[in-house]
């Protein structure tokens, strides 16, 4: 699974693994891919710096990346507190009502929800960029559009490639015009924020639109044959996120959530605005259902929704409330049926890729023979 892009980055396999867990990102890199650590869950830059220091030691000089979330347009002087003040009281009351209905306890006194999505705020995201560029990263990815021009310039000056996710050819063309180096074509099947176009249609559209920029295929990919399909459609690699949620190294995934993921089928996800305010594919739960129900006040725009539900989700995760606990995950969840180490997942991807390519070569040879 080597391509010009994997050669450029010095990785054995053209597999880019996004994960919020440092141990998983480091394991992906050690297994020959490129681990990409999601920074959005880090409220404090110091915590991200600590984990990147740890990854430096674990990766032993092998390449890895960091994924940030920030708006393309710079907004000065807006604090998290000012944004939180915009949240209507009716929405706060709705959240309290849902937690009370399911008997979710308050967090212990003095403990605030650790998973506050302040990473959606530009001031926080910029601190993440500052920290990331102080480490030997090889890739800076942006989950929601192109980063601001000054961030792209800083990354390039540091010798770091910049990637951005796109859900349409139009989005991809904007990324190319902004100076992005790699476009991640993220299809409708993917976990997290997705558009309306399926991976099979999206990847070749984007590959043609931004040629010669390299494209990574994302969405509905979790096996070797699916990797081969992504490359056959014009991608130079694959971007995988969901498959790492149930690996042995994902120790931060709660036991209850892991059991739900292992038992879920490909139809057990839903695109919902309940997490961030933008459509994000996630495990279907009573929490996602109630936000789309008749009694819901409706979701708020980003970043208000994420700030509104952050403490509630921390409580749900802390107390592992079965009916409510969930996570962003793609439709590939239906094939995530056992806990395996990252290295075993990578071995299966490479073997399956080789078998798929051999099968296609056999078909092609038979066709040539008439």
Automatic annotation (TrEMBL):
<keyword id="KW-0560">Oxidoreductase</keyword>
<dbReference type="InterPro" id="IPR004136">
    <property type="entry name" value="NMO"/>
</dbReference>
<keyword id="KW-0503">Monooxygenase</keyword>
<dbReference type="Pfam" id="PF03060">
    <property type="entry name" value="NMO"/>
</dbReference>
<dbReference type="InterPro" id="IPR013785">
    <property type="entry name" value="Aldolase_TIM"/>
</dbReference>
<keyword id="KW-0288">FMN</keyword>
<dbReference type="GO" id="GO:0018580">
    <property type="term" value="F:nitronate monooxygenase activity"/>
</dbReference>
<protein>
    <submittedName>
        <fullName>Nitronate monooxygenase</fullName>
    </submittedName>
</protein>
<keyword id="KW-0285">Flavoprotein</keyword>
């Amino acid at each position: 699974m080597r391509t010009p892009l994997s050669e450029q980055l010095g990785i054995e396999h053209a597999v880019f693994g996004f994960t919020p867990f440092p141990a998983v990102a480091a394991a992906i890199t050690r297994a020959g891919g490129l681990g990409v650590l999601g920074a959005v869950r880090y409220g404090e830059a110091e915590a991200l710096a600590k984990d990147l220091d740890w990854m430096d030691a674990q990766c032993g000089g092998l390449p890895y990346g960091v994924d940030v979330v920030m708006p393309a347009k710079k907004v000065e002087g807006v604090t998290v507190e000012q944004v939180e003040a915009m949240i209507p009281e009716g929405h706060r009351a709705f959240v309290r009502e849902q937690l009370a209905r399911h008997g979710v306890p308050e967090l212990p006194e003095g403990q605030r929800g650790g998973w506050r999505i302040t990473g959606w705020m530009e001031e926080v995201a910029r601190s993440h960029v500052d920290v990331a560029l102080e480490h030997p990263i090889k890739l800076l990815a942006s989950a929601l559009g192109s980063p601001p021009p000054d961030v792209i310039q800083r990354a390039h000056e540091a010798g770091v490639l910049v990637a951005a996710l796109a859900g349409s050819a139009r989005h991809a063309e904007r990324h190319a015009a902004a100076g992005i180096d790699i476009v991640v074509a993220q299809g409708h099947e993917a976990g997290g924020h997705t558009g309306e176009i399926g991976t099979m249609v999206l990847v070749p559209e984007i590959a043609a639109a931004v040629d010669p920029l390299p494209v990574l295929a994302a969405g509905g990919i979790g096996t070797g044959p699916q990797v081969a399909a992504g490359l056959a459609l014009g991608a130079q690699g694959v971007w995988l996120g969901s498959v790492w949620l149930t690996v042995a190294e994902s120790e931060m995934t709660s036991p209850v959530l892991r059991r739900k993921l292992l038992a879920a089928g490909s139809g057990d996800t839903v695109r919902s605005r309940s997490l961030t305010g933008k459509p994000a594919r996630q495990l279907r739960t009573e929490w996602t259902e109630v936000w789309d129900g008749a009694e819901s006040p409706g979701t708020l725009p980003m970043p208000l929704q994420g700030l509104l539900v952050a403490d509630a989700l921390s409580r749900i995760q802390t107390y592992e409330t079965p009916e409510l606990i969930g996570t962003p995950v793609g439709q590939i969840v239906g094939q995530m049926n056992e806990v395996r180490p990252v290295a075993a997942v990578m071995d299966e991807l490479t073997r399956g890729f080789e078998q798929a390519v051999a099968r296609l070569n056999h078909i092609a040879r038979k066709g040539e023979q008439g």
